[in-house]
Amino acid sequence: MEKRHKLQILAFALVATCCIPFQGLMAQNGIGYPEKDVVQVAEIMPVLETCASIDDRTERETCSNTGIMEHIIANLDYPELAREKNIEGTVYVEFVVNQKGYVSSVEIVRGPDLLQKAAIKVIQSLPSFKPGTNQGKPVNVQYVLPIRFALGE
Predict the structure, then answer these.
(1) Nearest 5°: phi and psi at 90?
(2) What is the pLDDT of residues 99-111, one digit of tens each?
(3) Alpha-carbon distance 144 to 91, whole Å?
(4) CB count, 10 Å around CB of 56?
């Protein structure tokens, strides 16, 4: 039953991870980064370290997106208070994969208050990435990832 709930919670994540980065929500909370410090799209986008050895770019990015989704499904805990109050919704989490390949600057763009901490926790726990690059140099790449919380029947 718990596995079913986690799958229902993140059914939307499959679509969402295919859309990373989700740029349209970036400025809604007024947070901005200097343009030279953080980019939304890099020549070579960050990928999970476990996928970095795949030669084909499309397969490598698909592997990374799938890995992110699987990590979220396996590690996201629906907050008990939110479950008791039947709170559902989408939390939009903004974060940066930095030049060293680690997740940093995790912040909420928007989403139900009782679900935000769980979303932050699961994003902060993502495994390391091979950093994105522009002109062969590592860059900080910003993402906005929607995480859908839904209670099952």
Answers:
(1) -110, 130
(2) 999 999 999 999 9
(3) 10
(4) 9
pLDDT of residue 2: 56
What beta strand segments (E) does 15-99 contain?
38-39, 47-48, 89-97
d(CA 66, CA 97): 17
Q: Are 82 and 149 in contact (CB under 8 A)?
A: yes
Instruction: Indicate the helix (H) or strand (E) that contains 8.
Output: helix 2-9
**Dist. CA 104–CA 101, nearest whole Å:** 9
| Residue 78 neighbours by CB under 8 Å, 6+ apart | 5, 6, 9, 118, 149, 151
Please state, in angstroms and rounded to a whole number, the distance separating the CA atoms of residues 67 and 129.
11
8 Å CB contact between 141 and 46 = yes
Stated as kind and residue range, the H or E segment containing 138 is strand 137-149
Residues 105-139: tens digit of each pLDDT = 999 999 999 999 999 999 999 999 999 999 999 99
> Cis link prior to 146 (omega < 30° from 0)?
no
